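In the previous chapter we treated chains in isolation. Here, by contrast, the input contains four separate entities that must be folded as one system, with a combined length of 392 residues.
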Amino acid sequence: MTEAARGTRGPGRRPGPTETREAILARARELFAEKGYDGASLRAIARAAGVDPALVHHFFGNKEGVFVEAMRFPVEPSVLLPRILAAPRDELGETMVRSFLLVWGDAERRARLLAMLRSAMTNERVAAMTREFLTSALFGRAGEVSGVPPLKVQAAVGHMIGVMILRYVLAVEPLASASEDELVRLLAPALQGYLG
Amino acid sequence: MTEAARGTRGPGRRPGPTETREAILARARELFAEKGYDGASLRAIARAAGVDPALVHHFFGNKEGVFVEAMRFPVEPSVLLPRILAAPRDELGETMVRSFLLVWGDAERRARLLAMLRSAMTNERVAAMTREFLTSALFGRAGEVSGVPPLKVQAAVGHMIGVMILRYVLAVEPLASASEDELVRLLAPALQGYLG
DNA sequence: GCTTGAATTCAACACATGATGAGTTATAAG
DNA sequence: CTTATAACTCATCATGTGTTGAATTCAAGC
């Protein structure tokens, strides 16, 4: 007898080693990135992972649990920040543009950042999480180390966030298809003004 | 007999002149601004307006109809743009910052812009609408009239959008409570760099 | 080779969503 | 005064949501 659809095989544990948990997280990241926290449903995540919704629940407790777990380290500031701040003071602008483009150019990390941003825009709790993350892990540290006043750091980061939205979310032309070098030439001077 | 709760009075048209349609639109704007397109439900809008969901339907056909109607003229570029472009060329930066702060400072207009932004971030169709609106009504005209290349205009607008998000959506301090003059001093030079 | 525990699905709950069709009351047009 | 049309609610549909409890199948510890 040919078994029906693959994966439609009753309850009970599956034989062999199990990696379902990671698979769920991967799909969760994709969906949170596409739709934001409220837009990505537990059931859609389960469906995408080929798994019963209750299993997602079993692993992560509730929807917020999935989100928190999926968002772990959207980007490690502890890795990225020193890399930026190590640059000579008169190249801070260019270095920052390049770092943003590097992170946002990588599909995996862009997904997490988009998820964070999309969710923060529409969900108050996620907005609070994001604010906390930004202030403590990014603005705080950056200002502390470099001596640049907070307002200027925030203006610089805000600038990059806005440009990333136009480029990656709204896909406005010609911004969306400009080359990395073009963007550096375009944006670095303004950032240098804030950080220099 | 004291009538029960106000507004809980059976079917049929209400006596006197009717302004319900406008009331619904007002509530719709508030909710779209708070939650975005997908987050704001037809039923919540109806509830907020003290009205049956079917009435919303009756007036606007479907949910997208409500949104389109509520978003009419989030900001009139035809009014704002000439005002900005009329400034002397070496004050374009400051004028633009002041214009953005003016529009975003007004609760009514901020609501529409937030609604647009929040919805565009999470809903593909609204993103398309927004892209269309931005390119035709804003980027196109602005570049055309002033002779500033599109990439630079977009960098400038992106900058302001990002800062507005940090200030009004994420409410990051000290950006969120900085005064208008502080912001002009902070941001005008960068914008002047793009537009001058 | 039992037994404990984890992985997995099923069935169901209570509730929210967008949409529809029919019915009721008022205004406006003839 | 009659009639048409607009405002308005009710009940209902089909579907989707997050969550729960029980049942089944496998993998390890003893």
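The first helix of chain B runs from residue 20 to 39. DSSP finds ten helices and no strands in chain B. Compare these points with the single-chain example from earlier in the chapter.
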